[in-house]
Amino acid sequence: MGAVFWDLDGTLTDPKPGITGSVIKTLERMGLPAPAPDALEWVIGPALLWSFAKLGVPDPKAALEHYRHFYTEGGGMYDCTVFDGIPDALTRIGATHAMHIATAKPHIYARQITAHFGLAKHMTHEFGPELDGTNNDKGTLLAHALDVTGDDPANSVMIGDRHYDLDAARAVGMRFIAVGWGYGRNDDLSDANAHVTTPDELPGVVGRFLS
Q1: Residue 101 — φ and ψ, nearest 5°?
Q2: If we measure between CA atoms, which residue out of 112, 118, 103 comes closest to residue 161?
Q3: I want to staple 76 with a disulfide (CB 3.0 to 4.6 A). Which of 22, 80, 98, 211 is the partner?
Q4: Domain ranges for the chain
């Protein structure tokens, strides 16, 4: 039975309001100029420590602490929605394949989100970085996940919306399905094994790849 590894932000859920809103509040708290939410879509996907450095924040670690306060205490964590069609796709794929979360979001937050929105029941394992930054690199995270699950990467697939997901899948020898509804519209995903534009396409594509 093949395994499916799911990205979370931009693939299962649309987290834009919560993430960009928390980033804006963080920059304002630090006395720095804050871009508009639409100009911050690129922060959805990679580790936020890297994103704050790219934004030119002098102390990214301090910014991350502010962000985590706004994200958790300010309600940003749950200011997101599950993409239409995802629950049905999870039910259909989960009937024949093991499924896991592999997200750049710290797993302590990811698990709360998947539980809150009814996604956790579909997953066997949920992987994400530690709060100290361990496994921030998604390729390292996927390698760790495979060690835990024992899944064969040749009979597994990663589903995501960003080049970070594609790069991670390639790093561990896993195939990759790119989804068209997330935040990778400016990423080069041409090397993906398949592209889908709606969640209802996913069960069929996964079925072609996995035994």
Answers
A1: -90, 140
A2: 103
A3: 22
A4: 3-14+81-209, 16-78
Domain 16-78 -> CATH class:
mainly alpha
pTM over 0.85: yes
72-99: per-residue pLDDT in tens?
Answer: 998 899 999 999 999 999 999 999 999 9
| % of the chain with per-residue pLDDT over 90 | 94
Q: Out of 7, 9, 137, 151, which one is annotated catalytic?
A: 7
Quick one: 87 exposed, middle or buried, by C-beta within 10 A (0-12, 13-18, 19+)? Answer: middle
The most distant pair of C-alpha atoms in the chain lies apart, rounded to whole Å, by: 53
pLDDT (0 to 100) of residue 29 = 96
38 flagged as catalytic: no
Q: What does residue 203 show for φ and ψ, rounded to 5 degrees?
A: -55, -40
The residue among 208, 201, 1 whose CA lies nearest residue 98 is 1
Strands 13-14 and 81-82: antiparallel
CA atoms within 13 A on the CB side of 114: 29
**CA atoms of 83 and 95, how far apart (whole Å):** 20
Tens of pLDDT, residues 24-41: 999 999 999 999 999 999
